[in-house]
Amino acid sequence: MSAIGVHFGYTCACVAIFKDGRADVVANDAGDRVTPAVVGFRDTEQIVGLAAKQGRIRNAANTVVKVKQMLGRRFDDPETQAHQTETKCQVISKEGKPYYEIPARARPLPETWPDS
């Protein structure tokens, strides 16, 4: 029997595979077995993991951190409000739900659709 396990924490994420009676945490492209749960946005690209975490100082308004703290919460939830003081990325309300507003993505991006 084989299985996969995903850990999505407040600050990091990792994936493990159980196969042939043993578990192995999968390394990312940098060789690390734990990846920071951080996403940074630029005009045309998304940066994830350690590179996004390291770029947070230069790109704070476009860097999303600690997403798990807001999953399933309303915008007016005290936890959501507290999170807003911890991030430089603007959190806005859409129909009562919290959304990150990403300045780097303010202009419309071209949309691509899979072939039918």
Folded structure, characterized:
With 116 residues, the protein is mostly beta strands. The chain has one domain: 2-Layer Sandwich (Nucleotidyltransferase, domain 5), CATH 3.30.420.40. The chain has two helices and nine strands; from the N terminus they run E-E-E-E-E-E-H-E-H-E-E. The strands form three sheets. Strands 1, 2, 3 and 4 form a four-stranded antiparallel beta sheet that branches. Strand 5 and strand 6 form a beta hairpin. The longest helix is centred in the C-terminal third of the chain and has 7 residues, at 78-84. It is globular, with a radius of gyration of 17 Å. Residues 108-113 have low confidence and may be disordered. Keywords: ATP-binding, Nucleotide-binding. Pfam families: HSP70 (PF00012). GO terms for molecular function: ATP binding; ATP-dependent protein folding chaperone.
Overall form? globular
Largest sheet: 4 strands, antiparallel
Q: How would you name the CATH homologous superfamily? A: ATPase, nucleotide binding domain
Number of helices: 2
Keywords: ATP-binding, Nucleotide-binding
GO molecular function, one term: ATP-dependent protein folding chaperone
Family: Belongs to the heat shock protein 70 family.
